[in-house]
Amino acid sequence: MDNSWKLLQSLEAEPIAKHYLSRCYKNKGFSHPERLAFQQSSRFSYLWRQARLFYLTAETADLSVQPLLLFYGCAHLLKAMLITQEPSYPQNSKVLQHGVTTRKVKKSSYQLTEDEVRPQKEGLFPLLARSFALHPMQDRYLVHELFLSIAPLSRIYASVTDTKPVWIPVAAAPFIRQDEEHNGSSWACLTFPETADGPLAYSPETLLQYIRRFSSSEPVLSEWQWRTGESDKQLLLPQCALSRLEQHPFFDREGDTLYFWNDPTDTPPLPAWASHYLLLYVLGMLCRYETEWWGELTMSHGLAERYLVERFLDYHVTAFPAALKMQIERSTGVSILT
Question: Of 17, 45, 57, 256, which residue is the least packed, with the fewest Cβ within 10 Å?
Fold first, then answer.
């Protein structure tokens, strides 16, 4: 397990869990944060422990049952994340439901990428959506869209299905300003590729307005400006803003690669917690209720769908804990330390 798990594992100790929750609730302005943290610390620490055990078991499990283990591991992580925002969780038994549904009986010509998952009015998913500002929540999500919404999988999915990727790599390089106002200051230069469609087809000023429209709360965006005298789109921003860029819904970073969301529909991508939860729900339901179809997929190495499923599961195991840790720290303003 990666370094993120090592940090998250510290929350399995109840005194550390209580102290962390107390800081979260204090930051959120709740009355009596220490009392609330005491009431939730046991549940909080056990959720982390059981989630880790689900993931550990899934690492050595056969593909035929792996999605089911990962779904419940993911659900436990999300419940722990929810407790950092909602000291009264679970408010009632209804919020313990998954909060999403899919067709239980599949057609004989069923294809995974054409399936869909529908949020319900009550349960874990809609509660998470309200707590973490997933607006507007759609009445359904297509599996096709869920695969495309995950940056490192977008190009893989596009190549397998002969579609266009919506996450486009953007070159980021250090840049030293030489003008009078910023003489010698350290900035970053983002070079956007030219495309025939999507926001990257906009004019430079329209593209910048489009980016700013979805991050009005980020003051440093006012300093972003296009580099003049260049034939391609080169955007200059303060170096300090580069590390916070992935907080913007249209940017994502995986390793050394920075991605930009170039969806022609102008719809922001789902956050990682939502897209991973929904995909795992669909795969977990196939494990449980479509045994014959799922068995054929897991035994056939020639199916493109098997390749997509394996790539997603491998990526989820390595990336999701880190993404969740970042989401918690961003929403609470409290770092998870050793």
Answer: 256
Beta carbons of 269 and 165 less than 8 angstroms apart:
no
First and final C-alpha spacing in the chain: 16
Torsion sign, CA atoms 213, 214, 218, 222: negative
Residue 189 dihedral angles phi and psi, to the nearest 5°: -120, 120
pTM for the complete prediction? Answer: 0.93
Cα gap 55→313, rounded to integer Å:
11
pLDDT at residue number 215: 74
Residue spans of alpha helices (H) in 214-271:
239-242
Question: Phi/psi of residue 118, each to 5°?
Answer: -115, 125
Nearest to 35 by CA among 25, 27, 47: 25
Tokens, residue 299? 């035994």
H/E stretch holding 272 reads helix 272-289
Which one-letter amino acid corresponds to residue 93? Answer: S
CATH 3.30.1360 at 167-261, yes or no: yes
- Please give the pLDDT value at position 194: 87
Q: Which two tokens stand for residue 25?
A: 């609730």
Give yes or no for a cis peptide into 67 (omega within 30° of 0): no
Question: 333 exposed, middle or buried (CB, 10 Å; 0-12, 13-18, 19+)?
Answer: exposed
Q: Which residues touch 274 (CB under 8 Å, ≥6 apart)? A: 125, 128, 129, 134
Torsion angle (degrees, nearest 10) of CA 163, 166, 169, 172: 170
DSSP state letter for 63: T
Where do the structural domains in the chain lie, given as residue ranges? 3-161+269-332, 167-261
